Amino acid sequence: MSGVRTNRDRLVTQILVGEVWPALADRHGYRVDADGTPFLLPGMGGVTLGAHAGDPATGYAADHLEPGLSVRAAGEGANMALQFLSCVGNEVTVRSGPAAGKTGRVLGQHAYVLVDMAEDDLALVAPGDRVSIRAYGQGLRFLDHPTVVAKNLDPGFLDSLPIRTLDDGRLEVEVAARVPAAAVGAGAGMVSEFANTDLMGAYAGQGDDLSLGLESLRLGDLVLLEDQDHRYGRGYRPGYLTVGVICTGHCRLFGHGPGPSTILSGPAEAFHVKGAS
């Protein structure tokens, strides 16, 4: 148990609907990596097999790897609601196609809402299949930690995380990695309920000069972003910390990388952080 008092009994659940979106490209095809090398690789959209929570986030022949299902809604407003209201850990049910009735969980947000499922179930899903999401968690507050803002976090998922209230009033969080502000790439300046924060410095196989020691990240890892304030957007603020869940994988495009969806943010003095130095 997380050992954190919340207002979960006052939250409501909304059932949202989306569909598995196809992978997209244009006729130009190629992109260019940090060293000027052109590449054409899979990554975003569709159904992506072979990468799940607990698996490495780097090392794939992929760009902007989106594990599992990439889900969005056809209408702009409905799609924004899907992005803003879906939370990490929400239950997702396939509603059409051979996989109808199979379930998974929201892993995070990117250009799509990303859904992790068992490999055999994923193999039954195709772009165009519809899914429903039990959107539950936005509005979550930590009652004993008023300066810490929680978002994108299903309270049921919170129960499984290494997070608790200490006797001195701080919020203890155990993370797999501490990420310096220098590693923050694409996603800065955006609202923190949309997409995620791409982390630079994990360009496996592209030269040690670009490494910030993040190649060992795994999908589903909790990471700490130093000097990042994601309470009401995403930006650099000394003395603030943000905790996120790694939900996207390998990137070759410069300024991008494995990325976390934000779940907690607040002043550094509100936290006690355990884990990687």
From TrEMBL:
Limits of the DUF4438 domain: 30-158, 161-272
InterPro entries (UniProt xref): DUF4438_C, DUF4438_N, TM_1086_sf, TM_1086_SG_dom
Name the record gives this protein: DUF4438 domain-containing protein
Organism: Paractinoplanes pyxinae
Taxonomic lineage of the native organism: Bacteria, Bacillati, Actinomycetota, Actinomycetes, Micromonosporales
